[in-house]
Amino acid sequence: MKHPLSPYIVASAALLALTAETKAQELNCEVTINTDQIEGTNKQVFETLKQAMTEYFNTTTFTSAQFAANEKIECRFFLTVKEYADDTFKGDIQVQSLRPVYNSSYTTTLINFKDTKVEFAYRENEPLIFSVNNMESQLTAILNFYAYLILAVDFDSFSPHGGDPYFERLKVIVQQAQSSGETGWKAFEDTKNRSAVLSSFTDAATSGIRDLMYKYHRQGLDNMVVSVDKGRATVTESLGEIEKIYKANPMTVALSMFKDAKLDELVNIYSKAPADERTKVYNLLQPIYPTESQRLEELKKGAQQQ
Question: Which of 49, 176, 187, 241 is the most buried (most CB within 10 A)?
């Protein structure tokens, strides 16, 4: 199986793909560690950890899919360390992933999620070992979870439920981590922990977010180069899934994940749309995101009246 971006690469990039190793690592991940809240300690361990995580993301082969070097998924992993003692790290993680839009230089955000339940043990120079079948450590479980989430959502954006094998892998990771009793994995403990994130994509009531990812990106954004109006109309149609999800489960993390990844982009998409179209989208989103009134008002006004 090839990465679904393959058919859309321009000729020069396709030539590069032919000369590159086709089964390659899937991610091109930039790792940042913020230690501003940590004082009076040797910070070399944080640099070592950064290097270890960067290498883990960018040299591990997580799937059997074929990725050319220029098809790797661009992503970012920001770890903010709030507490550190006895080789134990506590803090939060911001995860972002990007996707190219067909026949353009524009990249769109697929994931922009903050995980506030992060705790793991790591000893300086400890090797991070990838295993398909076993949970090697809390740290690698967290890294694996986000690697497969990035892959699942990316594949979903290119083909209907294309991320199925990676969501299955996520289920195994979560089950193993729940058995360990570690922080951030327990079902129903938190509406925004890693278990809740997985459920938001896989529970029947909210899994429409996956259909949205395909329609919004592959049928909407990717077609705007051919027809801005038709592509935008498909994006508008895809937003109906958000309304369905809100009615089914207004507390699901799927709603905040979509907002954090897409709201600014939606303001731009509709900046030159007809007034009736902007009003339609505003009326759909405003009850769902009442605290985002300022950005939604920008969406409603459009570029002509701002």
Answer: 49
Nearest to 277 by CA among 246, 250, 304: 304
Closest CA to 2 of 83, 84, 64: 64
Q: How far is CA 151 from CA 12, 127, 168, in A?
A: 25, 24, 12
Q: Could you tell me how far CA 215 lies from the centroid of its own chain? A: 16
- Tell me the pLDDT tens digit for each residue of 94-120: 999 999 999 889 999 999 999 999 999
Per-residue model confidence (pLDDT) at position 22: 46
* Maximum Cα–Cα distance across the chain: 59
Q: For residue 23, give the amino acid letter.
A: K
Nearest to 276 by CA among 284, 268, 287: 284
Which string of b and e fits 231-248 if b means at least 16 CB within 10 Å?
bbebbbebbebbeebbee
Distances (CA, A) of 17 to 22, 26, 171, 203, 223: 7, 14, 32, 37, 24
Please tell me the distance from the alpha carbon of residue 200 to that of residue 240, in angstroms, as a whole number. Answer: 16
Taking only the tens place, the pLDDT of each residue in 200-259 is 999 999 999 999 999 999 999 999 989 999 999 999 999 999 999 999 999 999 999 999
